[in-house]
Design brief:
Blueprint lengths: L1 E5 L3 H21 L4 E6 L15 E2 L2 H6 L4 E4 L7 H10 L4 E3 L2 H17 L4 E2 L11 H7 L5 E7 L2 H13 L3 H10 L8 H4 L2 H15 L18 H9 L2 E12 L2 E12 L11 E8 L3 E8 L3 H16 L15 E3 L6 E9 L2 H12 L5 E4 L5 E8 L2 H14 L2 E9 L2
Parallel strand pairs: 1-2, 1-4, 2-3, 4-5, 5-6, 9-12, 9-16
Antiparallel strand pairs: 7-8, 7-10, 8-9, 10-11, 13-15, 13-16, 14-15
Bound molecules: L-homoserine.
């Protein structure tokens, strides 16, 4: 089987190595010899000393003329990946991709194109790196109505938050390390601002709830506003901070968002550190399931691509229904009763605290004033997020302050 590899960065080179390493086993078990016939790269010169230099090209025409049976795309981003993928799908050639940006943005269109040409596009590696999650969701859990999906699903931000919390690392240094280890996107803005995670959540939720959920319709907040003081506060309160992707199917409407949350130390996410990801699904028949493993990095992601490759070799046609056409009604506020941390920046601390006590007395309130700062952290309970925001806004009308609020996620 002739495979053409598009892209040779962290993931592409990992795929190359894993195919070399596993070729014998693939041959013995599935009766096919997999051969990488061409590799498309941007800067050909970079590979001039590579032992396999003859495989590299910077010309898409050469990829076409190598007559591949299967395409593996690891370039990332929308263009030119979209053009290359559509070219091959329309010729009936199967494509494997790790490209969450493209699947989240144009997944339905690509799946329809693949179906129309009697081929497939496989994208297990686009969500959760090495964790098998899309296949279980589509196949093993097909007999369930999925009711909620929560996930720590961006390795870079989880690595940064873990390093800040465990090793008192600075944000900048932790991000630099995440880039050096190949977790971060080429532009890490999409990691730290939550866009990578929201795209993955949109893919998971679209499959899980059988609706076409656009990532750009979902509220997204990253970790760039998390301060060193927030980390100190979290430690003092036996909490941790995670960038949480959460969606819930509520009577046919969907709430979905990516946002930083505080978690309690007995939360299942408390042990999900560094580049590890975790996804917790709730199905009406199966109950709660947790999937965890390395969500970013060279070999974990290449492992997911190899799984897709072996499925194609076995002629398994996955994802028969594709992503879905129906656009769902979206809810914009976290719908469940929850405790929250509210971070206030305020000069008149005494008037703020007396007001807060008056408003939140019913369920109790915990106020922590940080030393020598005009920052106050408050833990309160609210039946729903909208009610909390309305209350906080009414406080802001009376007392000059800035606030940010965070769910305390206990599951
Ligand atoms: N930049 C991504 C992450 C890579 O950090 O999770 C895996 O999709």
């Amino acid at each position: 089987l002739k495979v053409a590899l598009l892209g040779y960065g962290t993931i592409g080179s990992g795929v190359f190595e894993l195919i070399e390493k596993n070729n014998k086993i693939i041959n013995e078990n599935y009766g096919h010899n997999v051969e990488i016939v061409k590799i498309l790269v941007n800067r050909l010169k970079k590979y001039k000393n590579d032992a396999n230099f003859n495989l590299f090209t910077d010309q898409f025409e050469e990829i076409k003329s190598s007559k591949p049976d299967i395409i593996i795309e690891t370039i990332g981003g929308i263009l030119p990946a979209y053009d290359y993928i559509t070219y091959f799908l329309s010729k009936g050639i199967p494509v494997i991709t790790a490209n969450k940006d493209l699947i989240a943005e144009r997944g339905s269109e690509l799946i329809i194109l693949a179906k129309d040409n009697n081929t497939i596009i496989s994208y297990e590696a686009s969500v959760g790196g090495g964790i098998p999650i899309l296949k279980p969701l589509q196949e093993c859990l097909a007999g369930n109505e999925i009711t909620s999906i929560s996930a720590v699903i961006n390795g870079t931000t989880n690595y940064i938050l873990t390093q800040m919390y465990e090793n008192n690392e600075t944000y900048d240094k932790a991000l630099e390390n995440a880039q050096a280890m190949g977790f971060a996107e080429s532009d890490p803005t999409s990691d730290v601002e939550g866009f990578d995670a929201i795209r993955k959540l949109a893919i998971l939720s679209s499959i899980g709830y059988k609706k076409n959920i656009k990532w750009s319709d979902l509220p997204t907040q990253g970790i760039s506003n998390i301060t060193d003081l927030d980390i100190v506060y979290a430690k003092t309160e036996n909490l941790k901070i995670k960038l949480m992707a959460y969606s819930q199917n509520i009577d046919g409407t969907v709430y979905g968002a990516v946002r930083p949350v505080f978690i309690t130390l007995n939360s299942k996410y408390a042990q999900i550190n560094n580049e590890y990801n975790a996804v917790i699904l709730e199905g009406d028949s199966v109950g709660e399931l947790m999937f965890t493993g390395k969500g970013a990095g060279k070999y974990p992601t290449a492992s997911a691509i190899l799984g897709d490759l072996i499925d194609i070799i076995q002629n398994k046609k996955r994802y028969p229904e594709g992503l879905y056409e129906e656009v769902s009604n979206l809810q914009h506020y976290y719908p469940n009763p929850s405790h929250y941390v509210v971070r206030f920046k305020v000069d008149e601390i005494d008037s703020l605290t007396s007001k807060l006590f008056n408003i939140f007395y019913e369920h109790g309130i915990k106020i922590s004033r940080m030393q020598d700062q005009s920052v106050v952290y408050v833990q309160v309970f609210s039946e729903n997020e909208k009610k909390l925001i309305d209350t906080l806004e009414s406080i802001r009308e009376e007392i000059t302050c800035d606030y940010s609020h965070y769910i305390i996620y206990e599951k």
